[in-house]
């Protein structure tokens, strides 16, 4: 492991070139152009409703249901911007881009909750997180996999392929391949993508950026990967490196984003917003950097007392949450930030709408193949490859999310 870290140490001479080489291929749309795209998107919603239901009244009621659902998640705010990447238009990190079959099936799956529709049109899950390895070169302060880190991997490639096959058999819009550091198992990632149906599910890799070279990014894209979510926990290089206990962590974030964008992958940043980080000024500096780095999305995560943070006083208090929520609303729906990446903030939705994970529309499959509510709620309820998987899933749903009531 240590040898691998040294092999990938930042070559100092390349830093300046790296910064110049960033060519954002993603851009935000707003105003008239966005409204035109949004109008066409609404026609797609109507077409999906018409395929799902025979009764025209159901077409209207189901569209109304989608509007109400959005309001329950986000409040009564008008859409201000969308992220465009390679001809796809995204409203959020966890919603497939309009307009392709994955998007249509995702919509049909939400309509299924309004009024059941034919099973073949519906995905069982929106998003499943699948850990493909325990290996990692970093030692992040908030690591949720801390107690398993760098232990022996137990799942074979064949078992991982079977897990994905099982999930896709039930239908899943998005699978996020995580770890550990998934890039340390590059050959496994390629094998999984080659064996998966990447036309019916969007596959993302969640990474620290370590080892996401241009060659690896191109190979992943060719194998069918949709995008990468790269963790960056501070806009200041030195503070991010300290948080990750790895002197070249920031360098690898820049490398990963540049290489991924040059390979044609959608890119997002993920920030663990700690008490010491949270301030309007820090959040704004972070977003300005995210814009320069050319990402389509920024994901805000709240620290949880699990893994490396277990037994620690890391939970945010009301004042911190208020700053994050105000910032989230301002950035996504305010008039002055239309060219900034779209913010995704689970805590905001969960406090209003409850949790959609815990077996309901998502779950976390850990590196032993066990099902958990989400990457931050570790309580194994059984192996996904067990014959009585459906029973385990029912247990997962019954136990629900320990923080937010399941919807
Ligand atoms: S949080 Fe991710 S990158 Fe950091 S130590 Fe844990 S597995 Fe590695």
Polypeptide structure, described:
This protein has 407 residues and is α/β, with parallel strands linked by helices. It has 2 domains: 88 residues, no CATH class; 277 residues, TIM Barrel (Alpha-Beta Barrel), CATH 3.20.20. It is built from 14 helices and 12 strands. The strands form 2 sheets. Strands 10-9-8-7-6-5-4-11-12 form a 9-stranded mixed beta sheet. Helix 12 links the parallel strand 9 and strand 10. Bound molecules: iron/sulfur cluster. The site of iron/sulfur cluster has 10 residues, from loops. Iron/sulfur cluster binds next to loops.
What tags apply to this protein structure?
single chain; 407 residues; alpha/beta; TIM Barrel; 2 domains; three-stranded antiparallel β-sheet; 12 strands; 42% helix; 14% strand; binds iron/sulfur cluster
Q: What's the number of structural domains? A: 2
Tell me the CATH topology of the largest domain.
TIM Barrel
Q: Spell out the CATH superfamily of the largest domain.
A: Aldolase class I
Cα shape: globular
């Amino acid at each position: 492991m240590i040898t691998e870290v040294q092999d990938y140490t930042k070559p100092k001479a390349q830093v300046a070139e790296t910064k110049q080489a960033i060519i954002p291929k993603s851009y935000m749309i707003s105003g008239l152009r966005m409204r035109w795209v949004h109008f066409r998107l609404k026609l797609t919603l109507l077409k999906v409703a018409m395929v799902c239901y025979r009764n025209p009244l159901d077409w209207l009621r189901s569209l109304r249901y989608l509007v109400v659902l959005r309001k329950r998640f986000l409040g009564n705010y008008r859409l201000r911007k969308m992220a465009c990447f390679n001809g796809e238009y995204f409203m959020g990190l966890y919603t497939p881009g309009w307009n392709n079959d994955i998007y249509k099936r995702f919509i049909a799956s939400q309509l299924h909750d309004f009024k059941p529709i034919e099973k073949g049109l519906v995905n069982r899950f929106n998003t499943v997180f699948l850990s493909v390895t325990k290996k990692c070169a970093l030692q992040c302060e908030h690591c949720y996999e801390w107690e398993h880190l760098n232990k022996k991997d137990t799942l074979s490639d064949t078992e991982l392929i079977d897990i994905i096959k099982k999930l896709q058999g039930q239908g899943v819009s998005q699978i996020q391949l995580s770890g550990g550091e998934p890039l340390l198992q590059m050959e496994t990632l390629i094998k999984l993508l080659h064996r998966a149906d990447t036309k019916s599910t969007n596959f993302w890799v969640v990474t620290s950026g370590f080892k996401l070279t241009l060659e690896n990014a191109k190979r992943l894209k060719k194998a069918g990967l949709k995008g990468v979510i790269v963790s960056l926990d501070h806009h200041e290089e030195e503070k991010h490196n300290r948080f990750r206990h790895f002197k070249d962590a920031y360098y690898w974030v820049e490398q990963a984003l540049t290489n991924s964008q040059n390979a044609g992958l959608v890119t997002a940043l993920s920030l663990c917003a700690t008490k010491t980080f949270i301030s309007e000024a820090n959040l704004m500096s972070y977003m300005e950097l995210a814009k320069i780095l050319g990402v389509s999305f920024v994901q805000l995560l709240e620290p949880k007392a699990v893994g490396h943070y277990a037994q620690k006083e890391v939970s945010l208090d009301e004042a911190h949450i208020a700053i994050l929520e105000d910032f989230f609303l301002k950035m996504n729906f305010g008039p002055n930030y239309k060219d900034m990446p779209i913010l995704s903030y689970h805590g905001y939705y969960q406090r209003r709408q409850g949790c959609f994970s815990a077996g309901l529309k998502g779950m976390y499959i850990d590196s032993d193949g066990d099902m958990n509510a989400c990457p931050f709620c570790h309580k194994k309820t059984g192996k996904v490859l067990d014959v009585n998987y459906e029973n385990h899933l029912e247990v997962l749903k019954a136990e629900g999310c320990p923080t937010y009531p399941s919807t």
